[in-house]
Amino acid sequence: MHINLIAKREVKVGFRNPWSYSFMALFSLFSLGLLIIQSQSYMEGYTYTTGTMLNLILYLLPLMTMLLSSFSLTAEKEEGNWQLLSTYALTTSSFLTGKYVGQALVLIAIVCFGYGISGVAGLVLGKSFAVSTLLFLLVFSICLILLFLGIAMVIGALCRNRWQALTMGVSIWFFYILAWPTLLISVLSFVPYTWIKPLLQIVTFFNPAEFVRIYSVTRLGGGAIFGPEYYKWIYWMDSALGDVCFVALCLLWVGATLWIAARAWERR
């Protein structure tokens, strides 16, 4: 009951937030850019164009998710709303879960609107996305939103104000999206060769952007680009249990981040 109330409140507040409409406009322009990219080549399965589109989504969506959602949590502290809510019979886990669900609905609505704009524009121009491509990009985007929203909950629980959330959010985005490959290569160069393969697979679980990208590329038939280090990953992702394992991994990540956020919120 409390989760539903918090989620409904969060949806209302989210759609009144000018940041939401700024990100909606940005993502709409972004999706139109993706339409231009895909209209210049034929796409079936994994191609250079498909990889470019996935990477562009990886650059924008995690940052957008972490900033919008962490700001929502820190605003509760700055504006004193949490002090009022805490006087009611409301647990921290219910509060954060409600915030998570509400923010997820707002962000998914933004993404659906952006892809809808690009779909309509494509129909008008005669260069629309294939339905399968549009659905794949939508599912890929929703996975990123749900995973990085958990990280945003942790950021919001740890930070006292929006400036701290902005700094931490950009830092985490830079680490996971831009610096990850370079840092990984640098660190693995110091370990014995026989350790590289298992360590590479283990640390991938700690980067949601990376394992979503690997899963998506593998499902498109481009798993060979990751090399022999990920052969076992490619094998189980292409198996009948691949989707089940991926969903379980995502649920585990979301549950872990929400648990960490709840503990951090209570300590604050």
TrEMBL record:
One Gene Ontology molecular-function label: ABC-type transporter activity
Record keywords, A-Z: Membrane, Transmembrane, Transmembrane helix
Protein name: ABC transporter permease
Pfam families found in the cross-reference section: ABC2_membrane_2
The keyword NADP is annotated on this UniProt entry: no
Transmembrane segments: 21-37, 57-75, 104-125, 131-158, 170-196, 240-262
Tagged with keyword Transmembrane: yes
Recorded superkingdom: Bacteria
Taxonomic source organism: Brevibacillus gelatini
Any one annotated GO CC term: plasma membrane
